[in-house]
Structure formats: structure tokens, C-alpha cells
Amino acid sequence: MAIPRFHCPREIPAAGIFRLPEQVAHHAFRVLRLGKGEEIVLFDGSGWEFRCGVLDSASVEILEKVAMDRESRLSIMLIQAMASSEKMDWVVQKAVELGVKSIRIVEARRSTVRLSGERARKREGHWANVAISACEQCGRNRIPDILPIVALEAWLPTAGQGKKLLLSPMGKPLKDFSSPDGEILLLIGPEGGLSPEEEALALSCGFEAMKLGPRILRTETAGLAAISALHALWGDFF
After folding, report:
1. How many CB atoms neighbour CB 148 within 10 A?
2. What is the per-residue pLDDT across 59-104, written as a single tens digit (0 to 9) for each?
3. Domain ranges for the chain
4. Nearest 5°: phi and psi at 96?
5. Which CATH code is given to the segment(s) 5-67?
């Protein structure tokens, strides 16, 4: 059985007795029912993980501080057009497991869901927690950034530098692209795809159209398939 892993939202010392944050203690001792003498692993997002022994229902002894790098060789920002809540949770969770460095959720013209104000902030907080849970499960010690929701057309001109890829049925095969020197920006449209105007704007802002094959993928499938293909071609899958 794998040793349970927990994210700690505050800095963890290298040694000594450490009192767990209330939420972590609740999960460890009330949900998983861990007991004295059992081991857990903590991480605080700094890249380190801490092997700990349970002392009581609130505290652990830090046994070892370990530098454990499980990050991908590729630096991928997933730019995902907004979809329904369940689909977005799935995309965030699996993209984190696949190693993306950050996720930018955008509102496109054909997005079926739109959020603003407090509702948007709450969903961003929810997705940040989904990302943390995914890191706890997959072993990552650095938590990807979940960036604020923005309108796609307003964001595109500010996208910055990197290899910019737009998944499109009209694109060229991934194997025809050269390997990246820096960050990869991967843009995935909503159900129904990007509008012609959005795609034209993306191309004018330096994005290149890429396709994965002859089939049209759902928005919640497309980004994950593309991330997997990028890792298989240029990353650390093989």
C-alpha cells in the first residue's frame, strides 16, 4: 500500500515535531484513520517532500527531508476553453497528473459556460484544490498554477513567448513540428471548436495549427491527448 501523501499549505521544517494543519489532520486521522507509528509524506510545494511518523491525532515527527523531482522535462501551459464543471474538473485533474506546469482557462465565443466575479473566483479556488489533490495522488511536489479565467480574444495578444500550438483539424501533424526550446502553450477550443475569428486571431498571435489525427476529439479529451503526444515525442514518457 502506498504511503499517504498530503499537501501542507505552510512551510514544513526539515526536522522535529510538526503540528499538522487542521484540514490535513482531519483527512489523515478522521477519514483515513491513520494511527500512531504509521508513516505519511508531506509536501509544501517547494519541491521537497517530508517523510513523517504519526505521533498523535494532530502531530507528526519529521523523519527525513527528501529532494524528489517528478516534474516533466517539458514546460506546458494548457490553455483550455471553458466547459461544464465535471469536464473542467476532469481536465484539470488529468492535466496535472500528466505534468503540465500551468493551466489557463479561457472563455471562448462558443463556450457553453461563462463565469465572472465571485463565481469565477470560487471555481478557480475549486480547481486549485483539484490540482492539489492530483499532486497528492501522482507524487508531484510542485503544484501547477491555476491562472485566472480570462476572455480568449483579450488574452491572445498577451500570450508571451514559447512554442504556441493550436489544436485544429486543419493543422499539420505534430511530428512535423520541431522540438521546443522553452515553454509550450497548448490552446484547446470549446465544444464546437473555436470560431473562425478566434482561430485567425490565434494564428496572427503566433500560434500554429496542429492536428493529432483524422478524428475530432471532445474538448475534455483533446488537451489530454495532445499533452500525452507532446510527452511521447519530446518529453519523458519513453
Report:
1. 11
2. 999 999 999 999 999 999 999 999 988 999 999 999 999 999 999 9
3. 5-67, 76-234
4. -65, -45
5. 2.40.240.20
Class at the top of the CATH hierarchy for domain 76-234: alpha beta
**Mean pLDDT rounded to a whole number for the chain:** 94
Q: Are 203 and 166 in contact (CB under 8 A)?
A: yes
77, 175 contact by CB (below 8 A): no
Annotate 98-130 with b (16+ C-beta within 10 A) or e (fewer). Answer: bbbbbbbbbbbbbbeeebeeeebeebeeebbeb
Cα separation, 13 vs 226, whole angstroms: 39
Taking the whole predicted model, whether its pTM rises above 0.90 is answered as yes
Report the alpha-carbon angle 226-232-235, nearest 5: 100
Helices (H) and strands (E) in the chain, counts: 6, 11
Do 113 and 82 meet the contact criterion of CB atoms below 8 Å apart? Answer: yes
Residue 1 has pLDDT above 90, yes or no: no
Cβ atoms of 74 and 68 closer than 8 Å: no
Exposure of 160 by Cβ count < 10 A (0-12 exposed, 13-18 middle, 19+ buried)? exposed
The β-bridge relationship of strands 102-107 and 76-81 is: parallel
